């Protein structure tokens, strides 16, 4: 079911999340709501706190991004054999990051209309439970790793705005104030409660 997306200024977005019990009756419904809400908003990732739940769970879709970008750009965002994924990450933990960094622009459904260039590691290793509740340790790279790190930030109470310097935050003061008050034009339902 499509849920309103919590936007900048909501306390839950600034709080670290807790792991969810794998046997929780809430889990399957949460995952379904994340997919429905993300797709409705035409996003590529969404975490539980963005729909008001304090759990360490998120979904990403880098496969759609792979298909949407031109072949010439794919080398910049994906390794040679990588075609992106559609994945569910339950109770993920970051284990390792590569020393190779790369900068790319990111947006966020909780900060509509803001785009920021962010430097992130090219490759990561994480542990998590998948949709079948199987424990996995896996490496990801490029855009998929970036999406995972962005959503991991959300589950740790870190927003895209936290990657911006003080001067930029001051410059964006009125835009952030508008987002906080729900005075933004978006195609998806938002929550400012």
Number of domains: 1
Q: Compute the number of helices.
A: 6
Largest sheet: 5 strands, antiparallel
Task: Report strand %.
Answer: 25-35%
Helix content: 25-40%
Pfam family, one: Pep_deformylase
EC number: 3.5.1.88
Binding site for Fe cation: 108, 150, 154
Family: Belongs to the polypeptide deformylase family.
Relevant terms:
alpha+beta; 30% helix; 27% strand; five-stranded antiparallel β-sheet; two-stranded parallel ribbon; 6 helices; 193 residues
Q: What does it look like?
A:
By secondary structure, this protein is of the alpha+beta class. The chain has one domain (5-184): Alpha-Beta Complex (Peptide Deformylase). Helix content is 30%, strand content 27%. The strands form three sheets. It has a five-stranded antiparallel sheet, sandwiched between helices. A hairpin with a 5-residue loop joins strand 7 (123-129) and strand 8. The longest helix has 15 residues, at 26-40. It is globular and about 45 Å long.
